[in-house]
């Protein structure tokens, strides 16, 4: 009885155009993609990578915000949300935040007056934060 079922399965697979090698290849490809995804996930969970992706998200959001406009309070709230998504516990004290902001302002091609306004409003006079924003802004030229 088992032999009949196995033969029937083979006949059905053969008649439907499927092959074991194609199925195995697809399974192998899927496993490779899954392994690569796991490796990327592990790499992105490292602290340096976490900060890099956070900085890049802040940069991209800042650029979009400057180009489209909006409420400053909403901008700051979104910065906090981005930090939370990336497990950054105190975005207001993280230099990575100010690097991202500076890069975003540079990409948005704001003038020095507008840059100074952002530095004053976000860094609140902190020279290290302002310097981080300036350096990141200058790197985008």
Write the layout of secondary structure elements.
Layout: H1 2-15, H2 20-44, H3 47-68, H4 72-85, H5 95-107, H6 112-123, H7 127-139
Helix pairs in contact: 3-4, 3-5, 5-7, 6-7
Gist of the model:
This protein is an all-alpha fold and 141 residues long. The protein has helices at residues 2-15, 20-44, 47-68, 72-85, 95-107, 112-123, 127-139.
Structure, described:
The chain has 7 helices and no strands. By secondary structure, it is mostly helical. The protein has a domain at 44-139.
Shape: globular
Beta fraction: under 5%
Q: How would you classify the helix and strand content by structural class?
A: mainly alpha
Oligomer designation: single chain
Radius of gyration: 26 Å
C-alpha termini separation: 76 Å
Share of helix among residues? over 70%
Order of helices and strands: HHHHHHH
Please report the total strand number as a whole number. Answer: 0
For the biggest sheet, the summary is: none
Task: Report mean pLDDT, rounded to a whole number.
Answer: 77
Count the helices. How many?
A: 7
Q: Stretches where pLDDT falls below 50 for ≥5 residues? A: 2-44
């Amino acid at each position: 009885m088992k032999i009949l079922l196995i033969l029937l399965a083979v006949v059905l697979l053969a008649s439907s155009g499927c092959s074991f090698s194609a199925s195995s290849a697809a399974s192998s490809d899927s496993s490779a993609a899954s392994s690569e995804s796991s490796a990327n996930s592990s790499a992105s969970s490292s602290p340096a990578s976490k900060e890099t992706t956070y900085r890049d998200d802040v940069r991209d959001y800042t650029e979009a915000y400057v180009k489209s406009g909006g409420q400053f309070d909403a901008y700051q709230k979104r910065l906090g949300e981005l930090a939370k998504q990336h497990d950054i516990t105190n975005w207001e004290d993280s230099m990575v935040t100010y690097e991202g902001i500076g890069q975003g302002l540079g990409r948005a091609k704001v003038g020095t007056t507008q840059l100074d306004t952002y530095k004053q409003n976000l860094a609140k006079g902190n020279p290290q934060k302002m310097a981080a924003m300036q350096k990141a802004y200058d790197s985008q030229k």
